[in-house]
Design brief:
Layout: H1 15-37, H2 40-43, H3 46-55, H4 58-74, H5 86-104, H6 112-118, H7 121-127, H8 132-150, H9 153-175, H10 185-191, H11 201-224, H12 227-249, H13 266-286, H14 294-302, H15 304-315, H16 326-330, H17 336-363, H18 365-385
Helix pairs in contact: 1-3, 1-4, 1-13, 1-14, 1-15, 1-17, 4-8, 4-11, 5-8, 8-9, 8-11, 9-11, 11-12, 12-13, 14-17, 15-17, 17-18
């Protein structure tokens, strides 16, 4: 039976979780910039391969962070989410918008008519690729379904933990199946990366659910005043997971028909989960020393979803700005120094944009809502009336 989390405590924003999310965004920005702009010669060096391991943690860390915040934002309204009432309806609407935003970023054309009448299999494969936003939206919707149908904390906790294990160990089997031949593209693209889905549900849903478990246990520790002991054991458990992943990967035993360490291996899953636990606990330990810098250090984490979408549009472009983005402007094959300068510039822009977006949200909520509706409304109208 899971430990019970008290739900009568006042809502509290945990600074170190915002710091964790800011660190993840920083790692993501740096990794994306270097991957795009660094010359092929530099990317073949040992140093860049070492860098790639840490950048490879950014997507799992982003999803892990979404799981962390889910329990914290949900526990005080646990009973309210057992019924189809306004709180749950608002949650579902926001999560559906997150999923739609993910599809928008993969649009092959900015025209509903052209997608329907002229879209090819390749176009639909691109449109329905599963990305981080899809994992977050579908993952959090599935968590709300568990709360809605099973209600009891113990059942929820057990089902989430079981799902982490199943996703971890079934991923190699799921990737061996060509779902495109069996089910429609919108569903098949969610399950594995055989057709270029960058972050399919297997294995990435496991990172989000693992964040839920860690957050749940952390809140129990807060209730009992044992946060320091919890963080100590989380670090130990994380180190053990890394060691286990390395040892298991070197055993002369194979249980999967196809074994791909970097994409499907349960051993690599363990290494990444263990690394995230250590990072999470490390940030908790250093947070008290960073209190006076909290505003600048947490803004990227507080507005992580906004920054995630904005940096993709600025860096790579989209159907709205295919020729007006940093990739087109600077090209590729740059030196390390030039790439670092681009990263600094992009980081400064994202910090400024995050501050502005947060200001609208907190200080001018009516204007914030108008801006949201105006942008969404204009894009939606153009999408349905444009013929190209």
């Amino acid at each position: 039976m899971c430990p019970s989390v008290g739900r009568s405590a006042p809502q509290q924003r945990h600074l170190f979780i915002d710091l964790y999310r800011s660190a993840v965004i920083l790692l993501m920005l740096e990794g994306h910039v270097l991957r795009v702009f660094l010359s092929a010669t530099v990317q073949k060096t040992v140093g860049f391969e070492f860098h790639e391991f840490f950048h490879g943690l950014s997507a799992p860390a982003f999803l892990f962070g979404a799981g962390l915040t889910f329990v914290i934002s949900t526990r005080r309204r646990w009973e309210e989410y057992h019924h189809w009432d306004p709180p749950l309806a608002r949650r579902v609407k926001r999560l559906l918008l997150v999923i739609l935003l993910g599809y928008f970023l993969h649009l092959p054309f900015f025209s509903f008519r052209k997608i329907i009448l002229e879209g090819t299999v390749g176009n639909y494969t691109q449109l329905f690729q599963c990305d981080v936003l899809h994992c977050i939206g579908i993952g959090l919707l599935s968590l709300h379904a568990l709360i809605f149908f099973f209600k009891k904390e113990s059942r929820f906790y057990i089902l989430v933990m079981t799902t982490v294990g199943l996703v971890c160990f079934l991923t190699p089997f799921v990737w061996d199946i060509d779902f495109m031949k069996l089910i429609p593209i919108p569903v098949s693209q969610l399950l594995n990366g055989n057709y270029s889905s960058p972050f399919p549900l297997f294995p990435y849903l496991g990172f989000l659910y693992a964040g839920v478990i860690v957050s749940w246990e952390f809140l129990v520790a807060v209730e009992t005043g044992t946060e320091r002991q919890f963080m100590y054991w989380l670090t130990v458990f994380g180190a053990a997971a890394i060691i286990a992943g390395v040892i298991f990967d070197n055993l002369p035993i194979t249980i999967y028909p196809t074994y791909n360490y970097w994409f499907t291996s349960p051993n690599y899953f363990l290494v990444r989960i263990g690394s995230l636990m250590i990072v999470f606990s490390s940030i908790w330990y250093i947070t008290p020393r960073l209190q006076k810098y909290r505003r600048i250090l947490t803004i990227l984490g507080i507005e992580s979803l906004f920054v995630y979408v904005a940096h993709l549009l600025v860096l790579y472009g989209s159907v709205l700005n295919p020729s007006c983005n940093l990739l087109v402007y600077f090209g590729t094959n740059l030196t390390l120094i030039n790439s670092v300068f681009i990263f600094i510039g992009l980081l400064a822009l994202m910090i400024f944009a995050a501050f502005f977006w947060n200001y609208l949200k907190t200080s001018r909520p009516n204007l914030y809502r108008i801006v949201q509706l105006a942008i969404g409304g204009v894009l939606l109208i153009l999408f349905f009336i444009t013929d190209f």
